[in-house]
Amino acid sequence: MPLFSRYLLIYIAANTILSVLLYFGVPRAQRRPAGGVFAFMLFFCLALPVMGPFAMLLGVIVALRSNRMVWADEFQLTAVPLLPLRVPKLRSRARYGQGGFMEVMKNAVDPVRKFAVLFAAAKMKDREAIPVLRAAMKDANDDVRLFAYSALYKREHTITERIAESVAALEKTEGEECFKFYRAAAESYWELYYLGLSAASGERHILQQAGSYAECALEMKPRDGSLHLLHGRILMAAGEAQPAFDEFLEAGRCGMARRSLLPYLAEAAFYCRRFGDVKNYLSELKAEAAGISRMLPVMEYWT
Question: What is the C-alpha to C-alpha distance for residues 89 and 73, in angstroms, rounded to an integer?
C-alpha cells in the first residue's frame, strides 16, 4: 500500500475516533439527531487540516493588508479634564432612621462612620437614640464605646437630677404644693425605666419608687385621669395586670379619652386572659382610629 494511502487511512481512523469521543462528550440532550451531529463533528475534524492554511491566509494576511482599515482615524486621544473641587454640603438632618443607624453600628468597619451616627443620634429623641447608643456600647473601638457611655450617662444624669430636685423639694414643701413634686418624681422614675437607662437589677426598685410617688399624688388628687393612666402603666410594667386594668378604667371615669385608653385596656385584658375583652377593645379601637398604622396588624389579627 502506498505511503500516502496509509497516512490517509490512519488520518481518517484517528479523526473518526476523535469524533466519537467528542460526540459522547456532548450533553445527551444536544446529541440529536445523532447522525447529523456525528457527521458535523467528523467533517470539521477531517477538514480542519485542509481548511486551516487557507483560513489563516484569508483571515490574517489579506485582512491586515487591506487598505480599507485605517486605525489611526478611528480614535482621538484627549486629556483627562480636572474635576472641579467642591466641598460637600453637610445636611442638617440625618438621612437614615433608627434602623439604618443600627445597621451602621453593627456592620461598619470605619469608626468615622460610627461617630457620624453617634453625632446624629445625639439630635434624636431619647426613645430612638438610646438603642443606638446601647449598640455602640458593645463596639470593639474604645473611642466609640466611651462616647456612647458618656452620652448615655448624660441622659441618665439629667433624669436623676430631676428626681433629686423633686425629692429635695418635697422635704421643704407641705400641703397641696407637694402634689406637683410627687407627680414630677413619679414621671421621672417612669421615664428612667421606660427609656431603659437603668440596669436590669434596678428596674424593680425604680418601678416601686415610681408607683409609690404616683400613689402619693393620687391621694391628693384622685380625679386626675392622666395620673391614673401613668399609675396603670407602672403597674403593667411591674406585672400587675389586674390593678393596672382597674387604673385604666378609673382614668376613663376621670375624663381621659376612651380612644387613648383602648390599647392599654386591651393589653391589660390580654394579660388577665380575658381574650373576649381584648377583641372587643380592639374592635372598638379599629372603628374609632382608622389611621393608626402601628396598631393595624394587631387589630386585624384580633378582629
Answer: 44
* Among 290, 287, 284, CA closest to 269: 284
CB 188 within 8 A of CB 163: yes
Phi/psi region, residue 105 (left: phi>0; alpha: psi -120 to 50; beta: rest), is: alpha
Residue 300: inside a domain, yes or no? Answer: yes
In terms of Cα–Cα distance, which of 256, 283, 254 is closest to 269?
283
Per-position b or e across 292-303, b if 16+ CB within 10 A of its CB: eeebeebbeebe
Q: How confident is the model over 198-219, as pLDDT tens digits?
A: 766 688 889 999 999 999 999 9
Q: Please indicate, yes or no, if residue 196 is contained in any of the structural domains.
A: yes
Residue-wise pLDDT tens digits, 243-264: 999 999 999 999 888 888 999 9
Instruction: Please report the pLDDT score of residue 139 as a whole number.
Output: 83
Distance CA 169, CA 181 (A): 7
Closest CA to 273 of 299, 247, 245: 245
How many domains in the chain? 4
Q: Which domain holds residue 21?
A: 3-55
Residue 37 lies in a domain: yes
Residue 166 confidence (pLDDT) above 60: yes
Q: pLDDT band for position 60 (50/70/90)?
A: low
Comparing C-alpha atoms, which of 144, 155, 166, 277 is closest to residue 217?
166
For cell 453637610, what's the residue? 90
Same domain as 103, residue 35: no
